[in-house]
Amino acid sequence: MKLIAVFFTLFCCFAYADNIKVGADAWADVTETDGSGIYFKLLNEIYGAENIEVNIESFHRSLKSFEDKKIDLLLGVFREDVKHAIIPNWYINTDDPILVFYRKDSPNKPNIHNLSDFSNSWVRGYHFERFINDRSDTYKVNSADEGFILLANNRIDTFIDYLDNVPTALTDKFEYFELLPPRRLYIAFQKNQRGQKLANIFDKNMSLLRKSGKLKTLYAGLYEKSELDTFEENKEKMVILTDEISLLRGNKQQVLPVNQTLKNNLNLLFDQLDGYDFEFKLVDNYADITENIGQDNLCYSDMLKTSERAKHYLFSQPFALYLGLQIYSKTPLPTNEYNQVNLLALLNTHQDKKIGLVSGRSLGEKIDQQLSQLSEKQIISTPTKLNRTLAIFNHDRFDYLIEYPQYIDLLWPNISQTKLYSYPLEGGRLYSVGHMMCPKTDTNQTFLNHFNQNVQTLVNSGALYNVLTNEVSDVKQTEFTRYFHQVFKPKTIVLE
């Protein structure tokens, strides 16, 4: 124990040229406005109270201060909250479930799939829109109290927040369902040399505090909920970047089959990788993937392999299979003798027409090359969430959409009764495959070696085929099975 105490002292006495500027919202028990709270006590233990300068303001303003580099660290963030930051290995808490509250007397009950039909509200800066499948009518408020009062007075249909924040006088007026299960909350450090040193000190001292029993004392009644006692710090952390919300929701909620397939597929593969601690991070687009070049312990899920990406990224064996991309329109399109659409000719002929695309997303090298020749005025940037993109398409913000048919077949009937015309593209492939894509590092290569072994095992057992066919219509099963054999070459014959 003496050795631990000495080691801890060495790390808490790091020489700080300036005070460590800490940003935080005011949260009960952890970051109180008077400077008390578990998080502040923790920072005092790790860095020394004399080195800490606390600035408490709304989360929205704290986040802006962090982005403007006015503070050194920001308390209580999800990975998605900060784009340019160092996130340590240790987290500081496990968040409560994010809940959707609505009035008990509401004639129409919201659920996880129909939130776009309601006016939804949350505290400004929380960006809960990331976790809603469809675009919805939203209203931001400055505090939880304000939101719950608006909900009680029938000014909004739902308020998205936490159970502990419901005013006592209003608890009997609301019902709720879970939008997102408990997730880890982190400290975000500035992405510079000073931030890296502070993050390293935090990680090393969190381990020592737990070993000494001091961490349990600091957290007191919140220690069990935080799950810090069971955190396996020696497991290899892998952050999986995805645009699929269902991967963040765990196994408690029912999700659409098209989302459930990818979720089941990854769960099946990850469950066998017991030496890794997986955490999902939601991405809004793929325009900034070059920023992660060279980063350890990070992979993108379900990515197309291109020669440009292969310069900086490693790719797993395929683990997902999709029938070929098609172009969709609300009106018939001209085609060649094979019923294919020439994308460039179409848009050059109709220069007033626009196509919706997710920024940074690859649709295959040949199609990407054609798209690169279009005028920027003809390209409308769309969300990664397909439900939202289809809602925008339905409102005629753009004229053409390129997507996988099994997704459109499932989702479009829930959005509109308008007929869509679909065609394969000249230069397009009959099918596409999804890979894990990880920056080129030894650590990531080791992970992919393990991942690939699991893929092959599931291919040979027939389990991967069974999962992937869940989203394929009956009329496409024979075609899909043929492509499955071409791509995965299972040792046992899979019958459709």
UniProtKB/TrEMBL annotation:
The keyword Signal applies. Residues 1-17 form the signal peptide. Gene3D superfamilies: Periplasmic binding protein-like II (3.40.190.10). Keywords: Signal. It comes from the Bacteria. Belongs to the bacterial solute-binding protein 3 family. PANTHER family: AMINO ACID ABC TRANSPORTER SUBSTRATE-BINDING PAAT FAMILY PROTEIN, MEMBRANE-BOUND LYTIC MUREIN TRANSGLYCOSYLASE F. This is Solute-binding protein family 3/N-terminal domain-containing protein. It comes from Thalassotalea castellviae. The lineage of its organism: Bacteria, Pseudomonadati, Pseudomonadota, Gammaproteobacteria, Alteromonadales.
